[in-house]
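[09:14] KT: can someone run the structure on this one? pasting the chain below
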Amino acid sequence: MGLRRLALRAAHRVALLVALLATCAVAVLSLPSVAGATVSCAPGSYLDGSTCSPCALGTYQPNTAQTSCLAAPAGTYVDTTGAITPTACALGTYQPNTGQTSCLPAPAGTYVDTTGAIAPTACALGTYQPETGQTSCLAAPVNTYVDVTGATSPTPCPKGYYQPSIGQTACIADDVPPVVSKELVTPNPVPVNGRATLTATADDSDNIASAAYSLAGGPWTPMSASDGTFGSPIQGLTAGITAPSAPGLYNVCIRATDAAGNTSDGGACTVLVVYDPTGGFVTGGGWINSPLHACRYTLVCVHTAGKATFGFVSHYLKGAAVPSGNTEFDFHAGGLNFKSTGYQWLVVDQDGTTAQFHGEGTINGSGTYQFTIWATDGSPDTFRMQITDAAGRVVYDSGAKQALGGGSIIVHA
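[09:31] RB: done, structure tokens below
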């Protein structure tokens, strides 16, 4: 019995020893993993053997206890070691590859308008971009076009074509001549043989190439560009002219030609008044029959016809540049009484039979109106009166020169 107990106790001790040895063996076998777990690498690094190393350029690691780093995705870059996150490509740049340390500027002819782009966008039709690293494209300017995508420059319209709008893909055939406006002679009137300056503006969809003027139906004489050089769609024009040697009213007409060769019809004209300050006068008094609708001053005046009386004298004092005198015109039935306040010019023809003079005055004692009188000393004497307001609207016009109902006109050259 004692021996059996001893044997059982010995067997129990052996079992405990075996269990202890098994536990130690497990512990010994687990030592490497326990040792690895105790080294926990921070974000931006990875376990390299038994030590933590920072992530290289072009890579990153946002998590802890990792054994490798991640390549920067397309559209991003990493330009520092130990990065936790990649950086998105900025506006104007892109990156098509992974694991990169920088982004690429958008090439000329393209743009990038978002961050994190993996490819640039080609400029659309009608646009272009000459620079790199841009976020948008430029619209083709006036008189140019872009008919391909990814353009780095616009194409000028060829001769005979134009384009008035921006951002277009084609030009328009130009078959329309320029428009000439704002024609003006300064000074006007001008004495016989005097000098004056003619100006105007030519406007066209294409550039203005040249211009010319004609005085009194004479030959076309070249004009100059006001800024010294032709080649703009809106071009100022200028020319020095010499007045004829005889007093009178002379048409000065202008025409312009654009780069496509279209020439205006020369119908843009202004009147040059040439006077002789050394002689000539006109005087007269009497009446005419004012026709229906000649007066447009009031509704009553419009529908009134009847007798209109006048009296005037106009002449140049010695050395004066403007004539002196006075004029009164009274259409009593229509309620219109005009009196001059000043003259601007007087033209008497050389044979002493016709005269024309111009000035300003008032109607019924108020306002400022322009007037022109045509007078003939002949058989019979004739008279015409025209009055306009400040806007150039006709207020009164007796029409074609009428024979006097009574009175007389004397013209002296």
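[09:33] KT: thanks! The two ends are 177 Å apart (CA to CA).
[09:34] RB: yep, looked fine to me
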